Amino acid sequence: MRRKTIIAAAAALALAPLAACGNGAEADTGGTVTVFAAASLTEAFTEIGAQFEAEHDGVKVEFNFAGSSDLAAQITEGAPADVFASADESNMDKVVEAGAAAEPETFALNQLVIAVPEGNPDGVTGLGDLAGLDFAACATEVPCGSAAQTALDGTGLTPVTYEADVKSTLQRLLLGEVDAALVYRTDAIAAGTDVDGIEFPESAAALNTYPIAALEDAPNPELAAAFAAHVLSDDAQSVLETAGFQRP
Amino acid sequence: MNATTPEGLDAHLVVERGAFRIDLRLHVAPGETVALLGPNGAGKTTALRALAGLEALTDGHIALNGAVLDGAACSTVPPEDRRIGVVFQDYLLFPHLTAIDNVAFGPRRRGTGRAEARALASAWLDRVGLAGFGKRRPKQLSGGQAQRVALARALAADPALLLLDEPLAALDARTRLDTRAELHRHLAEHTGPAIVVTHDPVDALMLADRLVVVEDGRAVQEGDAESVTARPRTDYIARLVGLNLYRGKASGTAIRLDSGAVLTAAEALEGEAFAAFPPSAVALYRSEPDGSPRNTWEATVAGVHRHGDHLRVQLDGPLRAAADVTPAAAAQLGLEPGQRIWAAVKATEIRAYPA
Amino acid sequence: MTASNTKPAKRKRQSRRVPAALLAPAVIGLAFLILPLAGLLARTPWAELPARLAEPEMLAALRLSLLTATAATALSLLFGVPIAWLLARGDFPGRSVLRALVTVPLVLPPVVGGVALLLVFGRNGIIGSWLYDRFDITIPFTTTAVILAMTFVSMPFLVVSVEGALRGADLRFEEAAATLGAGRWTVFTHVTLPMVAPGVLAGAVLCWARALGEFGATITFAGNFPGRTQTMPLAVYLALQTDLEAAIVLSLILLAVSVIVLASLRDRWTATP
């Protein structure tokens, strides 16, 4: 109980400007749909949002990109969101348990790859080649870290650093401080030509599932449902695939 | 005065800082104490700092017992290598050290072992009458005690030259009396040259063998206490010793002052001369006196104030002078500012000497 | 110490009235500083505390934090006091520019400071690449990196504090020491330093406290590895990802330890007359 009040306060602070926007636009004929989406979806969802706005005249899509756990906390404390797209199932489960969403649907999968510098100077072809190399992974507290831990279990390999999120894990590689990094395929692709992503079979055991749900208390329930449905459409799915996600 | 004597201090101090300049020649023999006496801002402290090496010379030289410490031709010896002890005006005892550690500071720096330095310091504290005060911090000492610790600290370093900057200025009148007598004893025991800077003539007279009067960075008069006080050569020193002083041209016993007035002295003299007489030599009358006094003039009372157990009357007129009268006499004369009055001084009371 | 009467008797100081114009903002300011702490205390799951205290990972992080913050303070003293002396006493062109540069880490977001350290000491950094090629030494992801990051962000606190103390110190005491035969180094060690000791101490305390709470530069430059580079603030941050209450407990432990250390040091220092 107590904990909720704290998070509510934090959420209220974080959402103050956003809430103001949402309320102002409500009177419009088209209306505004407010989407809370995991940070890893930033590029893909921005494009999907543009598609949705083009298809729905006068409709505006507002995004709040942040870590899934932060978003889940904000939603359960009553933040005025229409749609929640999470980077993992556990955060979506929290929202469902709190009664804020029902029947989430998986719209994308993300897989870990071994990111190496362009041209793969160390000739990495699989997890085994990481022995003797300095590599970075996410901390087990965050989704990409739990996936990495699952993959690394039993291999005896240890990263030199457990980063707080996937972006800073990749940053280690880009700065040349490590020889390799365990990141999502989408992040390796987003990094462009500086980074090559090496697929490895163990990652199949640690797939990350992205669920989406229209929220129960959505200020704009019709648009919420429409947006969630759009994300599952072929148009949106091809955007996600380009970004490196896999179809469920 | 022999500039070539290797023993003692031989210095020609020239320090320029902007418009301020001192140019001072000093010779102090071993065992001799010289007082630099002068008003505030005369450059006494600057001279002292130059001797200690805390202020660079613009020109001139400093030689101590034959060794040149500073001079145009050679490199300056830094203060830590000069072996010059300084008692600073506000003592500057190190607040983080006890009295004994303050005194032991100098010997320690000169390479004495810790135990030996402490024994030496303890002995010095004994000598200045502060046995048992060794463990006190400067904050826990009275002004007089702090002064004595500062003296002990300077002497314990076995200085070749001892400098004291206004050593008694910070003390109250009563402490000052005792401390002055004691300081005099220590200065007498000190075998090297010593210089005391002071603006207090009593300190200068009591502590020093010789006085050097400094005004505007220059020595204006030099000599033993008697000659300086008896024959002042500047208004400053005349005021200090409480004399009325005039300058004029002597022709026999008559001295024609620059103001036009003429004073008659007992001794005859020719040429530029000073004439001086004490305020107590001035007699005041309501009407022109007749009889013996040769020097009689009419004056205006400019002011009256208490001075010790008598009253000092400031006289305006052809001869500005101070006169001392008893309260009884003042009552009888009914003195008040603006009043016309007659003043007289006997010729035998007037000291005349060449300028 | 002898039982002499030299110690000033402890007197009860008469309570002086504080002007309302000072009291009101002081009380508001204190409330602002203390209430968040009270908030943390109110939300602390005390029952979890003993279990948390026994966790080896927590103990490792706490040990590492205390060790690295102390090492960073020592480094800051070693290099910061001379810097402060130079800034306060040195007479050279560009001194004010240098002073501004020294305070850069105070303004720089610590995360940027961490990146800047990587650019110098990282595997591709100006110095780091040479160390790596020549001696096969990598600094990032080591405890050394944690200490360097802490020193970078906390040394300015020491420098600013000591410089202020040096500027306030009366130079005439140093002159007095010189006339007693003390060379420049002896003057510094025997007179200057003891006289500015309170300023050095205040600076060291600030420096240590800042180092203890250091997060941004550490996680950026040193990474996060339990027992090696995971200090308490990093552990708190990661705990915050999953478990708010755990994060609060960890913060409180860090807070309590630092308060105990600082309070006991202060008692010790003020005990000497």
Radius of gyration of chain C: 22 Å
The H-and-E topology of chain A, N to C, reads as HEHEHEHEEEHEHEHEEHH
Report the radius of gyration of chain A as a whole number of Å. 19 Å
The helix count of chain C comes to: 14
Provide the CATH top-level class of chain C. Mainly Alpha
Largest sheet strand order of chain A: 2-1-3-10-4
Shape of chain A: elongated
Q: Could you give the order of the helices and strands of chain C?
A: HHHHHHHHHHHHHH
Which structural class do you get from the secondary structure elements of chain A? alpha/beta
In round numbers, the mean pLDDT of chain A is 84
The percentage helix of chain C is over 70%
CATH architecture name of chain C? Orthogonal Bundle
Low-confidence stretches of chain C: 1-12
Uncertain residue segments of chain A:
1-28
Taken from the alpha-carbon principal axes, the silhouette of chain C is globular
* Strand coverage percent of chain C: under 5%
The total strand number of chain A stands at: 10
**Proportion of helical residues of chain A:** 40-55%
CATH architecture of the largest domain in chain A: 3-Layer(aba) Sandwich
Largest sheet data of chain C: none
**Beta-strand share of residues of chain A:** 15-25%
Structure description:
The complex is a heterotrimer of chains A (248), B (355) and C (273). Chain A has helices at 2-25, 42-55, 68-76, 89-97, 143-152, 166-174, 185-190, 221-231, 234-242; strands at 32-38, 60-66, 83-85, 105-110, 112-117, 135-138, 161-163, 180-184, 195-198, 208-214. Chain A is of the alpha/beta class and 248 residues long. In chain A, the strands form 2 sheets. In chain A, strands 2-1-3-10-4 form a 5-stranded mixed beta sheet, sandwiched between helices. In chain A, helix 2 (42-55) links the parallel strand 1 and strand 2 (60-66). In chain A, helix 1 (2-25) packs across helix 3 (68-76), helix 2 packs antiparallel against helix 9 and helix 3 runs parallel beside helix 4. By secondary structure, chain B is α+β, with helices and mostly antiparallel strands. The mean pLDDT of chain B is 88. Chain C has 273 residues and is an all-alpha fold. In chain C, 75% of the residues lie in helices and 0% in strands. Chain C contains 14 helices and no strands. In chain C, helix 8 (143-168) packs antiparallel against helix 11 (197-213). The B-C interface holds B 52-54, 78-86, 88, 92, 94-97, 105-106, 109-110, 132, 135-137, 140, 153-154, 157 and C 1-2, 4, 6, 8, 170, 172-173, 175-183, 186, 190-191, 194-195, 197, 273.
